[in-house]
Amino acid sequence: KLFFTDYGNAAKVERCDMDGMNRTWIVDSKIEQPTALALDLINKYVYWLDIYLDSVEVVDYQGRKRHTIIKGRQIRHLCGLAVFENSLYTVNSDNLSILQINRYNGSDVQALAGLDNAKEIRVYQKRTQTAVRSHACEVDPYGMPGGCSHICLLSSTYKARTCRCRTGFILGTDGRSCK
């Protein structure tokens, strides 16, 4: 799945398959400017930062179990969001520090370190780097990913795929080759 935010005409948090199909709004109310997103891949939760509402909130992958983690002046000027174990990590763009926040109740907000000009933060954890299993976009004997001449995108499952073409090309009737 691909998770993303939008704060154009109607602010929302959405998800879709990797090929863009099955687009679903998971948060579309009481949200203004969601600018950062973090996933708890183990427990299947989506955290987001709303810079207009000065809040960090969470829902499950279906948009249920929504609640506010932290809200208010204490978290103004934040950008970037990452989750690791019991904490959320974000960057305060005002004083360029990394903040650690308890992800369950918003307590224990701590400034950890200063940085120069950081706008994003990521945590890489071995448990979330799942072993690769065979999938529909594996390279075929001719060197084409998923049998696609240009781009292979996983679809609703790791066994399904959609072929796409680079700019200036169109997909042929076989659904694999680009012309």
From TrEMBL:
The superkingdom listed in its UniProt entry is Eukaryota
- Which windows of the sequence hold LDL-receptor class B repeats? 1-43, 44-87
Check the record and name the SUPFAM superfamilies matching this protein: EGF/Laminin (SSF57196), YWTD domain (SSF63825)
In the record, biological process GO terms are: canonical Wnt signaling pathway
Q: From the UniProt record, which GO molecular function terms apply? A: Wnt receptor activity; Wnt-protein binding
> Which Gene Ontology CC terms are recorded?
plasma membrane
Fetch the Pfam families from UniProt. FXa_inhibition (PF14670), Ldl_recept_b (PF00058)
**Spans traversing the lipid bilayer:** none
Q: What PANTHER family does its record include?
A: EGF-LIKE DOMAIN-CONTAINING PROTEIN, VITELLOGENIN RECEPTOR-LIKE PROTEIN-RELATED-RELATED
Protein name (database record):
LRP1B protein
